[in-house]
Amino acid sequence: MAIISEMQEEKRPSVPFKASLDPSNPLGFLEKVLDFIGKESCFLLKDSAEKEIATAVTAAKERLKEAEKKKKAEKETVKPNEKNLTKESVPPVEPMEVEKPKKESLKPTEPMEVDKPKEEEKSCPIVPNKGNGLDFEKYSWTQNLQEVTITIPVPCGTKSRSVTCEIKKNRLKVGLKGQDLIIDGEFFNAVKPDDCFWNIEDQKVISVLLTKQDQMQWWKYCVKGEPEIDTQKVEPESSKLSDLDPETRSSVEKMMFDQRQKQMGLPTSDEIEKQDMMKKFMSQHPEMNFSNAKFN
């Protein structure tokens, strides 16, 4: 697992994109674009990469449809004028006026298709703090597999009766009475409200403890709207893992390994095991021809 993390942290050299579009093979050009994005950014490692690409394709189709509608509308407005033309009118002027809008109508579509990927490439996960969470101006949060802890600094001398805190299954509201809420949003995942609580430490810090409902998953953010952390950089406490029974600890370590493998586009532990079994079977039966076999 250490080797995998080192490979992942290697810096990729920046190389200028060079490719030409062959109208007879547009998919070939698109594959080169995706390969370039994969090498130069972490966009394709995102879980939502396929959805975002599909959304961009849908938006491009809609823009092309709108451009086609404009062309048809322009042609319809030109046709009646052509019927009313006389020999005394000047024919060369009319086609010049019709061709100009056609070229201009294509201009907005080209920069829009280029700008979208650039914006998406910038939204890469953030390295978590030492507590596997993030620090903000008004609060910070940390986590382990079982719990999430939120720490909110407040004016010294604040008492519990001045605090308003509402913890629901999927939402949290925290603040001081008579003031705007400090936190008001949805959780990354559900919690167990009956196992959650809050208190004031030294009358200057509000501490909120949240018990995760799914205790086999790292949260990418605490409250919706926050930047996402890179869960591959999460470092579980070794002491906590050692407290788990062997079966649970093995499941946790397997889950973390498989998660990293998927994000890197590599086979999971189950897939590796199946590949090893197939290799062993093939070595035990050299008389069999597997050249045309298809493996799922």
UniProtKB/TrEMBL annotation:
GO molecular-function terms, A-Z: unfolded protein binding
CDD domains listed in its UniProt record: p23_NUDC_like (cd06467)
Segments of this protein annotated with the region Disordered: 1-22, 64-127
Domain CS: 134-223
Principal location class: cytoplasm
Swiss-Prot/TrEMBL keywords: Cytoplasm
Keyword flag Cytoplasm: yes
One GO term describing the cellular component: cytoplasm
BP term (GO), one: response to stress
Gene3D superfamilies given in the database record: 2.60.40.790
SUPFAM superfamilies documented for this protein: HSP20-like chaperones (SSF49764)
Cellular location(s): Cytoplasmic granule
InterPro entries tied to this protein: CS_dom, HSP20-like_chaperone, NudC_fam
Biased composition, class Basic and acidic residues, residue ranges: 64-86, 97-107, 113-123
Function per UniProt: Small heat shock protein required for the establishment of auxin gradients and for patterning of the apical domain of the embryo. Involved in the specification of the cotyledon primordia. Also required for normal inflorescence and floral meristem function, normal developmental patterning and thermotolerance. Acts as a molecular chaperone.
Protein name, entry field: CS domain-containing protein
Species of provenance: Brassica carinata (Ethiopian mustard)
